[in-house]
Amino acid sequence: MLDIKNLHVKLEEEDKVILRGVNLSIGPGEVHAIMGPNGSGKSTLSYVLAGREGYTVTEGSATLEGEELLEMEPEARAAAGLFLAFQYPVEIPGVGNMTFLRTAVNAQKKSRGEPELSAAEFLKLVREKAKALKIDADMLKRPVNVGFSGGEKKRNEILQMAMLEPKMCILDETDSGLDVDAMKLVADGVNALRDAGRSFLVITHYQRLLDHIKPDVVHIMAAGQIIRTGGPELALEVEANGYADILSEVN
Ligand code: ADP
Ligand code: MG
Ligand code: MG
């Protein structure tokens, strides 16, 4: 599904190298987690995959089902089936959540050559998916994320994901700032979307989220590289011992 090979990235404005040869391969239906100390480049990796400005790829590739993502515009990446839930979801004043979702879903349909949803079809679908995520109708009417609590913003991102039905979902610290109940709701939303044809990359600083979203593979990232790969037990090792042991093995 997603193949990242020898990815090197630096900041566009300064000569600061952030990613130093990231290799990562995620198969269809797999859930991978990336953990790692603050500042190791986890968010940068997700930004670069999404096509955010400000970064320069100096080497390497990232393909989604064999198509080079790094050469596509951000919209084309989304149309190809990439979805990113960010650590800090953006607020969009003046744009109703419902309007935003309908525009996004229909743009996606159009780019895939599928018929757009009618107002009635969309309404039925969004209500059904919102209910499953315990999102109330009021939240659908408000401007996107404006005045939403941290938990509401995260649930709203999972709703966007559920509506867009992407192939490759990347969640960057979707658990940060959430209480246990909100985190479970987010995890349940993700688990409901797990499917043989859909893959997930879950970036998290803490092991806790991985009790609820069980990963197939866990990677540890440090100083812009993946330094260890293992099964779920690797996350438990980090939880128990911190990153120091793993870092010292590499240095
Ligand atoms: P993580 O998500 O693992 O905490 P980040 O990807 O946010 O790490 O950051 C990796 C490193 O790159 C950090 O040292 C961070 O300060 C730096 N960095 C990332 N983006 C920028 C930017 N736009 N300007 C300056 N430094 C940045
Ligand atoms: Mg960070
Ligand atoms: Mg981060």
TrEMBL record:
GO molecular function, one term: ATP binding
InterPro entries linked to this entry: AAA+_ATPase, ABC_transporter-like_ATP-bd, ABC_transporter-like_CS, FeS-cluster_ATPase_SufC, P-loop_NTPase
Keywords: ATP-binding, Nucleotide-binding
Domain ABC transporter: 2-248
Gene3D superfamilies: P-loop containing nucleotide triphosphate hydrolases (3.40.50.300)
Similarity-based family: Belongs to the ABC transporter superfamily. Ycf16 family.
Protein name: Fe-S cluster assembly ATPase SufC
Source organism per UniProt: Tabrizicola piscis
Gene behind the chain: sufC
